[in-house]
Predict the structure.
Amino acid sequence: MAGPVPELAETARACAKRLCRAESVLLASHIDADGLTSAAIASRALERAGISHDVVFEKQLDAERLDAIAAREQATVLFTDFGSGQLDIIADHEAAGKFDPVIADHHQPADAETRFHLNPLRVGLDGAAELSGAGTTYVLARELAAVAGDGDNRDLAALAVVGAVGDMQATDDGLVGANSAIVAEGVDAGVLAETTDLALYGKQTRPLPKLLEYASEVRIPGISNDQQGSVSFLQGLDIETHEDGEWRRWVDLSHRERQTVVSGLFQRALARGVPPEKAERLVGTTYTLVREDERTELRDASEFSTLLNATARYERADVGLAVCLGNRGAALDRARRLLETHRRNLSEGLETVKNRGVERTANLQWFDAADEIRETIVGIVAGMALGVDGVDADRPIVAFARKSDEEANDGPAETKVSARGTGRLVGRGLDLSVVVGEAARAVGGDGGGHDIAAGATIPTDERDAFLDRADALVAEQLG
Protein backbone atom coordinates (compact mmCIF):
# COMPACT_ATOMS: atom_id res chain seq x y z
CA MET A 1 0.00 0.00 0.00
CA ALA A 2 1.49 3.31 -1.06
CA GLY A 3 -0.68 5.30 1.36
CA PRO A 4 -1.38 9.03 1.15
CA VAL A 5 2.33 9.97 1.13
CA PRO A 6 4.23 7.53 -1.12
CA GLU A 7 7.59 9.05 -0.16
CA LEU A 8 7.10 7.81 3.42
CA ALA A 9 5.45 4.46 2.66
CA GLU A 10 8.50 2.22 3.02
CA THR A 11 9.63 3.71 6.33
CA ALA A 12 6.05 3.79 7.64
CA ARG A 13 5.66 0.10 6.81
CA ALA A 14 8.89 -0.73 8.67
CA CYS A 15 7.73 1.26 11.70
CA ALA A 16 4.33 -0.46 11.62
CA LYS A 17 5.90 -3.91 11.51
CA ARG A 18 8.12 -3.02 14.46
CA LEU A 19 5.13 -1.91 16.50
CA CYS A 20 3.23 -5.08 15.65
CA ARG A 21 6.12 -7.14 17.07
CA ALA A 22 5.94 -5.36 20.43
CA GLU A 23 4.32 -7.02 23.44
CA SER A 24 3.12 -3.58 24.52
CA VAL A 25 3.89 0.03 23.60
CA LEU A 26 4.32 3.26 25.53
CA LEU A 27 2.89 6.07 23.41
CA ALA A 28 4.53 9.41 24.31
CA SER A 29 3.25 12.59 22.68
CA HIS A 30 3.48 16.36 22.75
CA ILE A 31 0.75 18.42 24.42
CA ASP A 32 -0.50 20.87 21.77
CA ALA A 33 -3.37 20.26 19.35
CA ASP A 34 -1.03 18.54 16.89
CA GLY A 35 0.36 16.36 19.65
CA LEU A 36 -3.05 15.45 21.02
CA THR A 37 -4.43 14.48 17.62
CA SER A 38 -1.22 12.55 16.94
CA ALA A 39 -1.72 10.61 20.17
CA ALA A 40 -5.37 9.93 19.38
CA ILE A 41 -4.57 8.70 15.88
CA ALA A 42 -1.80 6.44 17.18
CA SER A 43 -3.86 5.16 20.11
CA ARG A 44 -6.82 4.28 17.91
CA ALA A 45 -4.57 2.61 15.32
CA LEU A 46 -2.73 0.60 17.98
CA GLU A 47 -6.03 -0.45 19.54
CA ARG A 48 -7.40 -1.60 16.19
CA ALA A 49 -4.19 -3.53 15.53
CA GLY A 50 -4.58 -5.30 18.87
CA ILE A 51 -1.45 -3.73 20.39
CA SER A 52 -1.60 -3.04 24.13
CA HIS A 53 -0.42 0.45 24.99
CA ASP A 54 -0.36 3.27 27.54
CA VAL A 55 -0.26 7.00 26.77
CA VAL A 56 1.83 9.73 28.39
CA PHE A 57 2.16 13.41 27.47
CA GLU A 58 5.14 15.72 27.85
CA LYS A 59 5.65 19.45 27.29
CA GLN A 60 9.13 18.68 26.04
CA LEU A 61 11.65 15.85 25.91
CA ASP A 62 14.98 16.04 27.67
CA ALA A 63 17.34 13.54 29.29
CA GLU A 64 15.41 13.55 32.57
CA ARG A 65 12.06 12.85 30.94
CA LEU A 66 13.53 10.21 28.69
CA ASP A 67 15.00 8.50 31.76
CA ALA A 68 11.50 8.46 33.25
CA ILE A 69 10.12 6.98 30.04
CA ALA A 70 12.87 4.35 30.08
CA ALA A 71 11.86 3.38 33.62
CA ARG A 72 8.39 2.35 32.41
CA GLU A 73 7.63 -1.31 31.83
CA GLN A 74 7.21 -1.08 28.05
CA ALA A 75 10.29 -1.94 26.01
CA THR A 76 8.95 -0.17 22.90
CA VAL A 77 8.20 3.56 22.88
CA LEU A 78 6.29 5.35 20.11
CA PHE A 79 7.02 9.07 20.06
CA THR A 80 4.50 11.26 18.20
CA ASP A 81 4.88 14.96 17.34
CA PHE A 82 8.26 15.07 19.01
CA GLY A 83 11.35 12.91 19.20
CA SER A 84 13.17 13.97 16.05
CA GLY A 85 14.69 17.00 17.74
CA GLN A 86 15.85 14.80 20.62
CA LEU A 87 17.09 12.01 18.39
CA ASP A 88 20.61 12.15 19.80
CA ILE A 89 19.42 11.48 23.37
CA ILE A 90 16.91 8.87 22.20
CA ALA A 91 19.60 7.10 20.20
CA ASP A 92 21.80 6.96 23.30
CA HIS A 93 18.96 5.32 25.25
CA GLU A 94 18.43 2.86 22.40
CA ALA A 95 22.13 2.00 22.29
CA ALA A 96 22.09 1.43 26.05
CA GLY A 97 19.21 -1.01 25.67
CA LYS A 98 16.78 1.12 27.69
CA PHE A 99 13.99 1.04 25.09
CA ASP A 100 13.35 0.58 21.38
CA PRO A 101 12.10 3.84 19.84
CA VAL A 102 9.69 4.41 16.96
CA ILE A 103 9.33 8.08 16.01
CA ALA A 104 6.56 9.77 14.00
CA ASP A 105 7.44 13.46 13.96
CA HIS A 106 7.83 16.45 11.63
CA HIS A 107 10.31 18.66 13.48
CA GLN A 108 13.94 19.21 12.48
CA PRO A 109 15.92 16.06 13.36
CA ALA A 110 18.99 16.18 15.55
CA ASP A 111 22.24 14.85 14.15
CA ALA A 112 21.80 11.17 15.00
CA GLU A 113 20.22 8.02 13.60
CA THR A 114 17.76 5.42 14.75
CA ARG A 115 16.18 2.60 12.75
CA PHE A 116 12.50 3.51 12.95
CA HIS A 117 12.22 7.23 12.31
CA LEU A 118 9.31 8.57 10.24
CA ASN A 119 9.72 12.25 9.35
CA PRO A 120 8.76 14.15 6.16
CA LEU A 121 11.94 16.22 6.33
CA ARG A 122 13.96 13.07 5.69
CA VAL A 123 12.37 12.69 2.23
CA GLY A 124 12.38 16.33 1.18
CA LEU A 125 8.90 17.31 2.40
CA ASP A 126 8.38 20.47 4.45
CA GLY A 127 7.39 19.51 7.97
CA ALA A 128 6.32 23.05 8.76
CA ALA A 129 3.91 23.42 5.83
CA GLU A 130 3.23 20.09 4.11
CA LEU A 131 2.80 17.51 6.89
CA SER A 132 2.13 17.91 10.61
CA GLY A 133 2.89 15.53 13.44
CA ALA A 134 -0.67 14.25 13.24
CA GLY A 135 -0.32 13.82 9.49
CA THR A 136 2.90 11.85 9.91
CA THR A 137 1.22 9.68 12.54
CA TYR A 138 -1.73 9.19 10.18
CA VAL A 139 0.67 7.83 7.54
CA LEU A 140 1.90 5.36 10.17
CA ALA A 141 -1.68 4.48 11.14
CA ARG A 142 -2.55 3.66 7.52
CA GLU A 143 0.39 1.24 7.38
CA LEU A 144 -0.51 -0.25 10.76
CA ALA A 145 -3.93 -1.13 9.38
CA ALA A 146 -2.35 -2.75 6.33
CA VAL A 147 0.15 -4.77 8.37
CA ALA A 148 -2.46 -5.85 10.93
CA GLY A 149 -5.04 -6.55 8.23
CA ASP A 150 -7.71 -4.56 10.06
CA GLY A 151 -9.54 -1.87 8.04
CA ASP A 152 -7.69 1.10 6.59
CA ASN A 153 -7.89 3.85 9.29
CA ARG A 154 -8.93 6.47 6.73
CA ASP A 155 -11.55 7.76 9.18
CA LEU A 156 -8.62 9.10 11.25
CA ALA A 157 -7.88 11.63 8.50
CA ALA A 158 -10.27 14.07 10.21
CA LEU A 159 -8.03 14.18 13.30
CA ALA A 160 -4.95 14.58 11.10
CA VAL A 161 -6.52 17.66 9.51
CA VAL A 162 -7.40 19.10 12.93
CA GLY A 163 -3.76 18.63 13.92
CA ALA A 164 -2.45 20.31 10.77
CA VAL A 165 -4.82 23.26 11.19
CA GLY A 166 -3.85 23.55 14.85
CA ASP A 167 -0.20 23.56 13.80
CA MET A 168 -0.91 26.61 11.60
CA GLN A 169 -0.22 24.74 8.35
CA ALA A 170 -3.38 25.92 6.58
CA THR A 171 -2.87 28.76 4.11
CA ASP A 172 -5.55 30.96 2.54
CA ASP A 173 -5.84 28.20 -0.08
CA GLY A 174 -6.08 25.48 2.54
CA LEU A 175 -3.74 22.64 3.35
CA VAL A 176 -1.08 21.89 0.78
CA GLY A 177 1.48 19.26 -0.10
CA ALA A 178 1.13 15.90 1.62
CA ASN A 179 -1.61 17.35 3.82
CA SER A 180 -3.85 17.70 0.77
CA ALA A 181 -3.61 13.96 0.09
CA ILE A 182 -4.83 13.29 3.64
CA VAL A 183 -7.71 15.71 3.11
CA ALA A 184 -8.67 13.81 -0.04
CA GLU A 185 -8.71 10.53 1.88
CA GLY A 186 -10.87 12.06 4.59
CA VAL A 187 -13.34 13.39 2.06
CA ASP A 188 -13.44 10.01 0.32
CA ALA A 189 -13.98 8.28 3.68
CA GLY A 190 -16.93 10.54 4.46
CA VAL A 191 -15.44 12.19 7.55
CA LEU A 192 -14.41 15.55 6.04
CA ALA A 193 -15.76 18.27 3.78
CA GLU A 194 -13.46 20.78 2.12
CA THR A 195 -15.24 23.97 1.10
CA THR A 196 -14.67 27.61 0.21
CA ASP A 197 -16.35 29.70 2.86
CA LEU A 198 -15.98 32.68 5.17
CA ALA A 199 -12.54 32.23 6.71
CA LEU A 200 -13.33 33.55 10.18
CA TYR A 201 -13.02 31.64 13.43
CA GLY A 202 -16.27 30.70 15.17
CA LYS A 203 -18.68 29.95 12.34
CA GLN A 204 -20.15 27.01 14.25
CA THR A 205 -20.48 28.48 17.72
CA ARG A 206 -20.47 32.29 17.75
CA PRO A 207 -23.58 34.44 17.25
CA LEU A 208 -23.16 36.54 14.12
CA PRO A 209 -22.22 39.82 15.85
CA LYS A 210 -19.54 38.09 17.94
CA LEU A 211 -18.25 36.26 14.86
CA LEU A 212 -17.54 39.62 13.21
CA GLU A 213 -16.54 41.60 16.30
CA TYR A 214 -13.90 39.12 17.42
CA ALA A 215 -12.54 38.27 13.97
CA SER A 216 -8.81 38.93 13.81
CA GLU A 217 -8.10 37.38 10.41
CA VAL A 218 -9.07 40.57 8.54
CA ARG A 219 -9.55 43.73 10.59
CA ILE A 220 -12.36 45.94 9.27
CA PRO A 221 -12.69 49.39 10.85
CA GLY A 222 -16.16 49.90 12.30
CA ILE A 223 -16.74 46.14 12.67
CA SER A 224 -13.65 44.52 14.21
CA ASN A 225 -13.52 45.01 17.97
CA ASP A 226 -16.72 47.07 17.69
CA GLN A 227 -19.80 45.41 19.14
CA GLN A 228 -22.30 48.05 18.06
CA GLY A 229 -20.63 48.40 14.68
CA SER A 230 -21.01 44.66 14.06
CA VAL A 231 -24.68 44.74 15.06
CA SER A 232 -25.41 47.77 12.87
CA PHE A 233 -23.66 46.20 9.89
CA LEU A 234 -25.72 43.00 10.14
CA GLN A 235 -28.98 44.90 10.63
CA GLY A 236 -28.31 46.79 7.41
CA LEU A 237 -28.16 43.59 5.32
CA ASP A 238 -31.01 41.78 3.60
CA ILE A 239 -30.90 38.72 5.88
CA GLU A 240 -32.84 37.37 8.83
CA THR A 241 -30.55 38.04 11.79
CA HIS A 242 -32.62 36.35 14.52
CA GLU A 243 -34.41 33.06 15.05
CA ASP A 244 -36.69 32.42 18.03
CA GLY A 245 -35.46 35.67 19.54
CA GLU A 246 -31.78 34.78 19.38
CA TRP A 247 -28.98 35.80 17.04
CA ARG A 248 -28.35 33.27 14.33
CA ARG A 249 -24.92 31.76 13.68
CA TRP A 250 -23.08 31.44 10.40
CA VAL A 251 -24.08 27.78 10.04
CA ASP A 252 -27.76 28.80 10.29
CA LEU A 253 -27.59 31.00 7.18
CA SER A 254 -28.65 29.93 3.71
CA HIS A 255 -26.20 30.05 0.81
CA ARG A 256 -27.77 33.31 -0.41
CA GLU A 257 -27.54 34.88 3.03
CA ARG A 258 -23.89 33.90 3.34
CA GLN A 259 -23.15 35.49 -0.02
CA THR A 260 -24.90 38.66 1.14
CA VAL A 261 -22.78 38.88 4.30
CA VAL A 262 -19.51 38.19 2.49
CA SER A 263 -20.30 40.76 -0.19
CA GLY A 264 -21.18 43.34 2.44
CA LEU A 265 -18.00 42.66 4.42
CA PHE A 266 -15.86 42.94 1.31
CA GLN A 267 -17.46 46.25 0.30
CA ARG A 268 -17.14 47.66 3.82
CA ALA A 269 -13.49 46.58 4.03
CA LEU A 270 -12.59 48.31 0.76
CA ALA A 271 -14.55 51.42 1.72
CA ARG A 272 -12.63 51.64 5.01
CA GLY A 273 -9.23 51.38 3.36
CA VAL A 274 -8.45 47.68 3.73
CA PRO A 275 -6.18 46.66 0.80
CA PRO A 276 -7.92 44.35 -1.70
CA GLU A 277 -5.40 41.55 -1.15
CA LYS A 278 -6.23 41.57 2.57
CA ALA A 279 -9.97 41.81 2.00
CA GLU A 280 -9.80 38.71 -0.20
CA ARG A 281 -8.65 36.75 2.85
CA LEU A 282 -12.21 36.98 4.18
CA VAL A 283 -12.87 33.87 2.09
CA GLY A 284 -10.73 30.76 2.13
CA THR A 285 -10.66 26.97 2.30
CA THR A 286 -12.29 25.52 5.41
CA TYR A 287 -12.61 21.99 6.79
CA THR A 288 -15.73 20.51 8.34
CA LEU A 289 -15.87 17.27 10.33
CA VAL A 290 -19.16 16.12 8.88
CA ARG A 291 -19.87 13.40 11.46
CA GLU A 292 -19.82 15.88 14.33
CA ASP A 293 -22.89 17.82 15.42
CA GLU A 294 -23.50 21.24 13.91
CA ARG A 295 -23.16 24.30 16.15
CA THR A 296 -20.40 22.61 18.17
CA GLU A 297 -16.66 23.28 18.31
CA LEU A 298 -15.97 19.79 16.99
CA ARG A 299 -17.63 20.43 13.65
CA ASP A 300 -14.96 22.91 12.48
CA ALA A 301 -11.28 21.96 12.29
CA SER A 302 -10.11 25.36 13.52
CA GLU A 303 -12.45 25.44 16.50
CA PHE A 304 -11.68 21.80 17.34
CA SER A 305 -7.94 22.52 17.40
CA THR A 306 -8.44 25.54 19.68
CA LEU A 307 -10.50 23.40 22.07
CA LEU A 308 -7.67 20.86 22.21
CA ASN A 309 -5.05 23.53 22.87
CA ALA A 310 -7.14 24.67 25.80
CA THR A 311 -6.90 21.26 27.47
CA ALA A 312 -3.24 20.37 27.22
CA ARG A 313 -1.94 23.84 27.99
CA TYR A 314 -3.69 23.61 31.36
CA GLU A 315 -2.24 20.21 32.25
CA ARG A 316 -5.31 18.26 31.10
CA ALA A 317 -4.05 16.51 27.99
CA ASP A 318 -6.04 13.48 29.15
CA VAL A 319 -9.24 15.48 28.59
CA GLY A 320 -8.21 16.46 25.06
CA LEU A 321 -7.30 12.88 24.22
CA ALA A 322 -10.66 11.64 25.51
CA VAL A 323 -12.48 14.16 23.29
CA CYS A 324 -10.44 13.07 20.27
CA LEU A 325 -11.32 9.45 21.02
CA GLY A 326 -15.04 10.20 21.07
CA ASN A 327 -16.00 11.16 24.62
CA ARG A 328 -18.88 13.59 24.18
CA GLY A 329 -19.93 13.65 27.83
CA ALA A 330 -17.85 14.69 30.83
CA ALA A 331 -14.62 15.15 28.84
CA LEU A 332 -16.21 17.51 26.34
CA ASP A 333 -17.88 19.50 29.13
CA ARG A 334 -14.54 19.82 30.91
CA ALA A 335 -12.80 20.82 27.67
CA ARG A 336 -15.32 23.60 27.11
CA ARG A 337 -14.73 24.99 30.58
CA LEU A 338 -10.99 24.93 29.96
CA LEU A 339 -11.57 26.71 26.65
CA GLU A 340 -13.30 29.57 28.43
CA THR A 341 -10.32 29.89 30.77
CA HIS A 342 -7.96 29.70 27.79
CA ARG A 343 -9.75 32.49 25.93
CA ARG A 344 -9.74 34.70 29.00
CA ASN A 345 -6.03 34.12 29.61
CA LEU A 346 -5.16 34.80 25.96
CA SER A 347 -7.13 38.04 26.03
CA GLU A 348 -5.47 39.14 29.25
CA GLY A 349 -2.06 38.12 27.92
CA LEU A 350 -2.54 40.15 24.76
CA GLU A 351 -3.61 43.15 26.82
CA THR A 352 -0.45 42.77 28.88
CA VAL A 353 1.68 42.95 25.73
CA LYS A 354 -0.29 45.93 24.39
CA ASN A 355 0.04 47.83 27.66
CA ARG A 356 3.71 47.09 28.26
CA GLY A 357 4.83 47.17 24.64
CA VAL A 358 7.82 45.36 23.18
CA GLU A 359 11.56 45.99 23.22
CA ARG A 360 13.56 46.01 20.00
CA THR A 361 16.99 44.91 18.91
CA ALA A 362 18.31 45.57 15.42
CA ASN A 363 16.40 42.65 13.90
CA LEU A 364 13.99 41.37 16.58
CA GLN A 365 11.27 42.54 18.93
CA TRP A 366 10.68 40.89 22.28
CA PHE A 367 8.88 40.98 25.61
CA ASP A 368 9.49 39.25 28.92
CA ALA A 369 6.21 38.19 30.54
CA ALA A 370 7.93 36.72 33.61
CA ASP A 371 5.03 35.01 35.43
CA GLU A 372 2.28 37.30 34.09
CA ILE A 373 1.58 34.97 31.14
CA ARG A 374 1.65 31.19 31.44
CA GLU A 375 4.63 29.65 29.71
CA THR A 376 2.28 27.20 27.97
CA ILE A 377 0.45 30.00 26.13
CA VAL A 378 3.06 32.75 25.79
CA GLY A 379 3.88 31.61 22.25
CA ILE A 380 0.24 31.90 21.21
CA VAL A 381 0.08 35.39 22.71
CA ALA A 382 3.26 36.36 20.84
CA GLY A 383 1.73 35.22 17.55
CA MET A 384 -1.49 37.11 18.27
CA ALA A 385 0.50 40.24 19.09
CA LEU A 386 2.16 40.43 15.67
CA GLY A 387 0.59 43.37 13.89
CA VAL A 388 -1.29 44.97 16.79
CA ASP A 389 -0.54 48.61 17.55
CA GLY A 390 3.08 48.98 18.57
CA VAL A 391 4.13 45.53 17.34
CA ASP A 392 5.73 45.22 13.91
CA ALA A 393 4.28 42.45 11.73
CA ASP A 394 7.46 42.43 9.60
CA ARG A 395 9.85 41.63 12.44
CA PRO A 396 10.16 38.29 14.31
CA ILE A 397 8.90 38.39 17.87
CA VAL A 398 10.45 36.57 20.83
CA ALA A 399 8.60 36.03 24.10
CA PHE A 400 9.97 34.94 27.47
CA ALA A 401 8.03 33.46 30.39
CA ARG A 402 9.01 31.91 33.69
CA LYS A 403 8.88 28.12 33.77
CA SER A 404 5.95 26.87 35.84
CA ASP A 405 6.47 25.41 39.31
CA GLU A 406 6.08 21.82 38.19
CA GLU A 407 8.98 22.35 35.82
CA ALA A 408 11.27 23.64 38.56
CA ASN A 409 14.27 21.61 39.67
CA ASP A 410 17.29 22.02 41.88
CA GLY A 411 19.36 23.63 39.12
CA PRO A 412 19.47 27.24 37.92
CA ALA A 413 16.21 29.04 37.20
CA GLU A 414 14.95 28.46 33.66
CA THR A 415 12.94 30.56 31.22
CA LYS A 416 10.67 29.44 28.40
CA VAL A 417 11.37 31.08 25.03
CA SER A 418 8.78 31.24 22.24
CA ALA A 419 9.44 32.83 18.87
CA ARG A 420 6.99 33.59 16.08
CA GLY A 421 7.36 34.86 12.52
CA THR A 422 5.15 35.26 9.46
CA GLY A 423 4.90 33.55 6.11
CA ARG A 424 6.33 36.67 4.50
CA LEU A 425 9.41 36.55 6.73
CA VAL A 426 9.88 32.84 6.08
CA GLY A 427 9.72 33.61 2.37
CA ARG A 428 12.60 36.04 2.86
CA GLY A 429 14.71 33.34 4.54
CA LEU A 430 13.71 33.34 8.20
CA ASP A 431 14.08 29.97 9.97
CA LEU A 432 13.25 30.32 13.64
CA SER A 433 14.05 26.67 14.28
CA VAL A 434 17.68 27.42 13.48
CA VAL A 435 17.66 30.81 15.24
CA VAL A 436 16.14 29.60 18.48
CA GLY A 437 17.96 26.28 18.54
CA GLU A 438 21.44 27.71 17.95
CA ALA A 439 20.92 30.71 20.23
CA ALA A 440 19.61 28.50 23.05
CA ARG A 441 22.47 26.02 22.80
CA ALA A 442 24.96 28.89 22.76
CA VAL A 443 23.81 29.88 26.27
CA GLY A 444 23.45 26.40 27.74
CA GLY A 445 19.83 25.72 26.78
CA ASP A 446 18.14 23.84 23.97
CA GLY A 447 15.30 24.31 21.54
CA GLY A 448 13.96 23.97 18.03
CA GLY A 449 10.69 23.79 16.12
CA HIS A 450 9.72 25.15 12.71
CA ASP A 451 10.80 28.01 10.48
CA ILE A 452 7.72 30.08 11.42
CA ALA A 453 7.45 29.10 15.10
CA ALA A 454 9.98 27.71 17.55
CA GLY A 455 10.64 27.39 21.26
CA ALA A 456 13.40 26.75 23.75
CA THR A 457 14.36 26.58 27.40
CA ILE A 458 17.31 28.66 28.58
CA PRO A 459 18.90 29.64 31.91
CA THR A 460 17.03 32.72 33.12
CA ASP A 461 20.17 34.82 33.57
CA GLU A 462 21.18 34.17 29.93
CA ARG A 463 18.23 36.02 28.39
CA ASP A 464 20.25 38.97 27.07
CA ALA A 465 22.97 36.73 25.69
CA PHE A 466 20.31 34.65 23.96
CA LEU A 467 18.85 37.79 22.40
CA ASP A 468 22.24 38.93 21.15
CA ARG A 469 22.87 35.61 19.44
CA ALA A 470 19.33 35.34 18.06
CA ASP A 471 19.50 38.87 16.65
CA ALA A 472 22.77 38.09 14.84
CA LEU A 473 21.30 34.88 13.37
CA VAL A 474 18.19 36.70 12.10
CA ALA A 475 20.42 39.33 10.53
CA GLU A 476 22.31 36.60 8.67
CA GLN A 477 19.10 34.97 7.43
CA LEU A 478 17.33 38.12 6.33
CA GLY A 479 20.41 39.78 4.93
